[in-house]
Amino acid sequence: MSCSGLAIMMGAGGPDWGIEMSEQLATDLGHLVEELAKEARPTEPANLARLGEQVASLFKAKPDEVAVLALTGQDKFLKFIIPEKLQAIGTLPMTSTSALAVRTVREKRPELFNNFAGTRHATVFEGVPLGRRHDEPIQKLMSAPIFVEDKVIGVVQISRKGRTSAEAGPDFTQQDLRLLVSITGALAAFIKLCKVS
Length: 197
Hints:
Blueprint: H1 3-8, H2 17-37, H3 45-58, E1 66-72, E2 77-82, E3 91-93, H4 100-107, E4 111-113, E5 138-148, E6 151-161, H5 165-168, H6 174-182, H7 184-194
Antiparallel strand pairs: 1-2, 1-6, 2-3, 4-5, 5-6
Helix pairs in contact: 2-3, 2-7
């Protein structure tokens, strides 16, 4: 079933409907990565956008609220893959003490913050224009490591941006965090396609 077909069903279903829909969307994400693997240029901008939109749809987020980063430089840096606009901006050194993505790699565990704007964190990438107003910082954030076997190869983050926490949207839940962890296998396959150096 396609994502658009699922969107039409939103008014129906019982208490497990949201879980079933999320599982289907996660399966669709895996299929998308399989499709991209068959393409000559799987990481061209249009494909990066498709993947970002698919991940965003799982969490009712906007595409610019999705970040996928890969370890590079002999695991000394994290480099943005998604959003594409952040690829050329720079990398996060693994020595950073204020970048949540770095902490996610080090601690090898997922986290969620529904008060992220109030925490100490690196803000350099929040200032990059991604198609929305500059006065909409990240208010809420989930972060999960991406593994291949027992080695972390990257991080996925989903945020909610807005001028205030209320404007940013609903709080993330433990169910959202479990869903984020469940899609990391598909994202690991995608990172392998990217051949990040």
